[in-house]
Structure formats: structure tokens, C-alpha cells
Automatic annotation (TrEMBL):
Matching SUPFAM superfamilies: JAB1/MPN domain
Residues annotated as domain MPN: 46-168
One Gene Ontology biological process: proteolysis
UniProt keywords, alphabetically: Hydrolase, Metal-binding, Metalloprotease, Protease, Zinc
Gene3D superfamilies named in the record: Cytidine Deaminase, domain 2 (3.40.140.10)
PROSITE patterns: MPN, UPF0758
Protein name: DNA repair protein RadC
Organism domain of life: Bacteria
Gene Ontology MF term list: metal ion binding; metallopeptidase activity
Transmembrane segments: none
Length: 168
């Protein structure tokens, strides 16, 4: 007999160290979602629409209590080479170094890149600093023939695309 009422039907259960099933914490659920998206979007998966990109990035970056700056490195047909979490920050900022981004793009032989970071505040609107950083990264990558396709800001279940705002 279950200890949960019918309103608990949607609770995700995980096994504890003693082998008992207990309700999953939000962190465990987000970790499981990140692992699931990794299985779904393997190397070579095509990012053919903004919605696919946003869904992938929301699954990867939602729920962090600190800023995380990441990049999707893509081939010339916009297929995934690798998703890399490049820089970890504080609750409201992350230091991003264009030199390191260029080095990673060259290491992976990427033809294109989509940047992303999260806003733990819950507001996906790009700040002036976000816009300036995107311009700097785009300029640095243009020198080595890597196209910047977008910069997506994730804030929980919401996201904002600088490309859709016409800022690229």
C-alpha cells in the first residue's frame, strides 16, 4: 500500500541509499533532465529550429543558482559537435574570456557556435553587458571563420534569443 495520496501521482521517486523510494528533490529532477537531454541530443544531432535550441538549453541551464555560460559548438550543417559549459559565475554574473572561447572552437573544429547563459533571477531579457559580450565574442570568432548563430538567455522556463531580437 502506498503512503502517497492520489494528488502525489505526479511525484518523481528515487531510490535512497537504503533502497527505499523517496520523493526526488528539485536538484535530482533537474540532474535527471540534463542526463536525458544528453541522451536525446548526441553528437551529430541537428539544431534545425530555434525551438529545438531553446528546449535543449533550457533543459541544460534551468535551475542553476549561479550563472553558467555555455556554448553549442556546431559543424557547417549546424549539427552538434559538443555542448560545453565554459564558465561558472556567481548569482548575477559570470566572467567570460573570448580567448578561451576561440581556443575551444578551434579545438573542436567548429564552423558555428550558439552561446547561452542562464539568469538565476528569472528574467531572460538581455542586459547591455550581455549584448556587448556577444558582440565581442562574435568579432573574435569571425577572425577564425566561426559563425555566431545566436546567444540564448535561459531563465527557468523562459528564454530570450538575441538573434530573434535582431541583435546579431
Amino acid at each position: 500500500m502506498s503512503n502517497f495520496t492520489s494528488s502525489d501521482d505526479s511525484i518523481l521517486l528515487v531510490r535512497d541509499n537504503a533502497g527505499r523510494y523517496v520523493p526526488a528533490t528539485p536538484e535530482q529532477i533537474l540532474d535527471a533532465a540534463r542526463r536525458a537531454i544528453d541522451l536525446k541530443m548526441k553528437r551529430g544531432a541537428a539544431f534545425t529550429s530555434p525551438d529545438i535550441v531553446k528546449n535543449f538549453l533550457q533543459a541544460k541551464l534551468a535551475g542553476f543558482e549561479h550563472e553558467m555560460f555555455a556554448a553549442l559548438f556546431l559543424d557547417n550543417r549546424h549539427r552538434l559537435i559538443e555542448y560545453v559549459e565554459l564558465f561558472r559565475g556567481t548569482i548575477d554574473a559570470a566572467s567570460v574570456y573570448p580567448r578561451e572561447v576561440v581556443k575551444e572552437a578551434l579545438r573542436l573544429n567548429a564552423a558555428a557556435v550558439i552561446f547561452s547563459h542562464n539568469h538565476p533571477s528569472g528574467h531572460p531579457e538581455p542586459s547591455e553587458a550581455d549584448k556587448a559580450l556577444t558582440r565581442r565574442l562574435k568579432q573574435a570568432l569571425e577572425l577564425v571563420d566561426v559563425r555566431t548563430l545566436d546567444h540564448v538567455i535561459v531563465a527557468g522556463h523562459a528564454s530570450a534569443s538575441l538573434a530573434e531580437f535582431g541583435l546579431l
